[in-house]
Every structure is written in C-alpha cells, then in structure tokens.
Design goal:
About 70% of the residues lie in helices and about 5% in strands. The chain has about 350 residues and is mainly alpha-helical. The strands form two sheets. Strands 1-2 form a two-stranded antiparallel ribbon. It has a two-stranded antiparallel sheet with strand order 3-4. Helix 1 packs across helix 18 and helix 9 crosses helix 10. About 10% of the residues have low confidence.
Length: about 350
C-alpha cells in the first residue's frame, strides 16, 4: 500500500504533460475511491451469507486486482527514470507512447535530459564537468543526502512542510474514520444492519462520483484554491453531522440528518482534500527555484523534477496518521461520544490550507 501510494503519483507526474498533469496525477485517487465504493458494494451484497460472509467480503478485493495486475504490464515506464539510468532509447520509446507525435517525444526527451543533468549538478548526484574544468561527482550516500536535504535546504524544506501539511490534513479531516467506521457510525445512529450497510454504500458512491469534477477543476482553479473552498464546508458539515446525534432517537430525522451531512461532507471532500494532497506532494518537490546551468553546449533555465524521497516521506506521514486514527477512534468515540469524536475532526481543518504556498 505504501509503495503504491508513493510510486503512482510520481510516475504520473513524470509521465504527464504539464498542461494536464493535475488531472492525470489525481486519477489514482479517483480510482482508489472507486475501489472503496466496490468494497462497500461487496459488503452490502454478501452480508447475508452467514458465517462465511466476512471471508467473501474480504476475498472479493481479489477480483478487481486481476485486471489491475494484467494492466500493469502494459503501462509504460517513466521516461525520466530511463534517462536517470542512461537508457535514452527506452526513454524515447516510452515518450512516443505518451505523446501525440515523435517530435513532441523528442522535445520532451531533451527537456527531461536537461532537467536530470541539472539536478545532478545542483544536488551532487552525477558526474558533470563544467566548461571551467571543475568536476561534479556523485556522492556515495545519495538517498541519505536527499533525505537530509529535505530539512536542510530552505526551498526543499518549504516543499516538505507544505506536503506534510496537506497529508496530515487529509487524515485529520476525518475521511478515513468515515470510510472505515461508517457502518459503526450509522449503527450508533440506530440504523439496522442492512440500513447501515446501504447508507455506507451511498457514502462510497458519493465519494467516487464527486471526485470527477476535480478532473477538470484541479488544473483550472488550482490545488490550493480547491482546498480553501472545500475545507470550510467540510468543517461545518462534520459539525452538523455530530450535532444531529442530539436529535431524538425515535425521530425519523435522526438517521436522515446524520446521513445527509455525512454525504455532504463526502461531496466536499472528494474534489478537494481527496485528490489534492497526493497531487500537490508529487508536484511540490520539483524545486521551484529556477537555476541556470551553463556549459559549452547548453544554456537552460528550468525547474527541477520531483524528489522521490520527498514523496515517500509525505506518504509515510499520511499512512502513519491513518493507522493512528484507525486504532484510536473507537476509544475516542467511547470517551467523547460520537458527537464529540466527529466534532474533534471538524475543529479547524479549514485553517490548514491558508499556510500553503500556491502551486
């Protein structure tokens, strides 16, 4: 799971044209939400099958994994990775599959080559000789050096901070609590087992359906603007869902209002805090510093590409807090009641996006 979450956004960011990079990078989050929806569907369809129901629900995830495994073999490798390994012919073939014409592929092959060489020069990751005769060479601890640079180089440190903020915010907004414990929440709202599963299925459907608008809006309106718009609405819908537990249990509005506000929360989450963190993190680590590299053959002014170690760190932060909240939430709910636990996740997530630099 961790490998997948850190690899796919980087692969998409390195393979996509800049004009539609956001839409393509967020594609992985879109289809993750579809997989969650399929999981809710399996739970609803199989729950009446007795003692083996949980086994079938658990094993049903194997079914969509089969075409995924097959499809992986038809996926082109990142041309940037090929170039870093000095496999230029393979990089060109990959770009021919990813671009409309061989001319565009050749253009991007040269751009990526120049970017990789500049990165090696500035970060000490390759052998480059300048026109003055000074030699730059690969340092022995490449991974360790890059990890240290996340915190010691100011511009990379800011990217690390921004990526960490959006990753933590994704967990602290409470979405995975809603996804993992949705049936429990609706059962606490005095729904029957079937009703709880059916309402949870609706939650998964809305989470998937409302991710589609972000395919266009994430490049049109920007990543930070989506967060600034959706975070406040996520906060008030969570508060409203929590306070709806105070509606008398025998009122038809009790379950209905809780469901309504949780659905609204999912509708605001899906086009904003859902796809943005991984897209933002994959793009934040191109160093937005603009450098000039001069040699006998080349003068180029451009930005560096993503640091894979930075994306890995951001994903590890995200999944760490997902694990912590998954373990802690049942005790949190017992101590604070469902209203207090839901209110905990509504406490000011809208302020986090204001600290982010524009992307």
């Amino acid at each position: 799971m961790g490998t997948k979450a850190s690899t796919i956004p980087v692969l998409a960011a390195e393979s996509s044209p800049a004009s539609i990079r956001g839409s393509l990078v967020m594609g992985w989050q879109l289809w993750v939400s579809f997989g969650i929806f399929l999981g809710f569907t399996a739970n609803l369809v199989l729950y009446q099958l007795g003692d083996i129901a949980w086994r079938l629900q658990f094993g049903s995830a194997f079914i969509p994994a089969i075409p995924l495994i097959i499809g992986i073999y038809f996926c082109p490798e990142s041309p940037r990775w090929y170039i870093k390994k000095h496999r230029y012919h393979d990089a060109f073939k990959s770009l021919q599959r990813l671009r409309n014409t061989p001319l565009q592929a050749a253009r991007d092959l040269y751009y990526i080559h120049a970017q990789v060489r500049l990165e090696e020069l500035m970060l000490g990751d390759g052998d480059i000789t300048l026109s003055e005769g000074k030699e730059q060479y690969t340092s022995s601890g490449r991974y360790a050096n890059r990890l240290i640079q996340l915190f010691t180089i100011a511009r990379i440190r800011r990217a690390t901070l921004a990526a960490s903020v959006v990753m933590i915010a994704q967990q602290m907004c409470g979405i995975n609590i809603m996804a993992f414990y949705s049936s429990t929440l609706f059962t606490e709202a005095h729904a029957s087992e079937r009703s709880a599963l059916l309402v949870s299925w609706g939650f998964g459907l809305i989470n998937f359906a409302f991710a589609w608008p972000a395919v266009r809006s994430i490049d049109r309106f920007g990543r930070r603007n989506l967060l600034l718009f959706t975070f406040p609405h996520m906060a008030w819908t969570l508060l409203a869902a929590g306070f709806s537990f105070y509606i008398p249990d025998d009122s038809p509005a009790h379950l209905g209002m809780i469901t309504l506000f949780i659905y609204l929360f999912a509708a605001f989450y899906s086009p904003g805090e859902g796809p943005v963190p991984f897209t933002y993190s994959a793009e934040a680590f191109p160093l937005f510093h603009r450098g000039t590299f001069t040699s006998d053959l080349l003068v180029v002014r451009l930005s560096l590409q993503p640091l894979e170690v930075g994306m890995s760190l951001a994903v590890s932060i995200n999944l760490f807090w997902a694990a912590v909240l998954t373990v802690v939430y049942p005790k949190l709910s017992d101590a604070l009641t469902p209203t207090g636990a839901i209110g905990f996740f509504a406490r000011g997530p809208d302020k986090k996006a204001h600290a982010l630099p524009s992307n």
